[in-house]
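Recap from last week: sequence in, structure out.
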Amino acid sequence: MKERPAMIASALRAFAAAASIAAPLHAQPAAPDGEPIEAAGPLGPLSGTLLRAGEGGEGPVALIIPGSGPTDRDGNSPLGITGAPYRLLAEALLERGIATVRIDKRGMFASKAAVADANAVTIPDYVADTAAWVAAARKATGAQCVWLIGHSEGGLVALAAAQEVEGLCGLVLVAAPGRPVGDVIKAQLRTNPGNFVIIPAADAAINELAAGRRVDPSTLPQALQGLFAPALQGFLISLFSYDPAALAAQTTLPLLIVQGGRDIQVPVADAERLAAANPAAKLVVLPDLNHVLKDVADPAPAANLAAYRDPALPLGKGVAEAIAEFIAK
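Predicted structure tokens:
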């Protein structure tokens, strides 16, 4: 099965000429035992892990919505991420009295049976899954409402869910795009000078998909044919049709925006665009934080990408603190 494109995939391609991502894998430290939790999927169950906070399980509950591509409940991906950012975030929030549910997306990993084809998906499908997870989390914990923590593309899903899903406490957007994702991908491709010759074709393809029209991949440069494969275009049409800032402007729930200054996939300007769209939102910018929620002091792309593969590198300073403080208020 072809994996649908991810924002991380674009970034890795963009920086491949400048940095190696073939660093050795690090052993993952022991994690607190969670318990399995399921939600209803279209054809089979969706699978996740619940970390309860405290003996009685009382207190806030947050659902962590994964980012783009084949990203699992821990935040890892076969595209080159083994830093387990979602597991580390869940553990850090647990220490601060916040329960979490982290999940495998429909058609992937332990949620593989939920749909026949993981590529045949739209943002409304992910919103429906979010609603199912919110219901499951409330039933399992007794919580009256659930917080959504959306990372990267998951932030867009959280914003879309805020317009439709009942039982929400509020939203936390982490490294979330503030522009239509097609514009984000255009910018990512431009970070690598080697992509110069394919930029016009990529822009034209993205513009067509954003207008709801499919493109013929055979007319594109070979480097772009996988990114715009026919099996992926339905999802891309759905994804590119949303403006996250417009959704943020419509959101009446409490809203926290967390952004890293070392993010090589989503810049601070995106977070600022989201915050400008919703003056009631709180914006927290952590200068050394990268896209996978790790601190990177070295500005070199190689150092940044090495953090994507290091689960021993702790969660970035200030991430859990900002989220926990916001939820507590």
